[in-house]
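Final report, Chapter 2: Outcomes

The project's central promise was a pipeline that accepts a single protein chain and returns its three-dimensional structure in a standardized token representation, suitable for archiving and comparison. That pipeline is now operational. To close this chapter, we reproduce one record exactly as it appears in the project archive, with the input sequence first and the structure output second.
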Amino acid sequence: MSTTKLNRSDVLNKLMEVRGNALAIAGLGSPVWDLAASDHQPENFYNWGGMGCAISMGLGCALAQPKRNIWVITGDGEH
């Protein structure tokens, strides 16, 4: 078993380096702060009020824009 620990902000920074024009939707809590600090874009959607809604929002965006990559950044419990 590895003892290496991942830092979620570092991981998100690496992901944002290869984002391209993907729409980023952040779930409630820490993902919102991490996305804003890492790669604030006018099209980012910061979910401030609906715990557990980020995935369904991402699905709706993917259905509305099927040719665009949609990234949902969320966590266990969206905290």
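Archive annotation: The two ends are 27 Å apart (CA to CA).
This record, like all others produced under the grant, will remain available to the consortium after the project formally closes.
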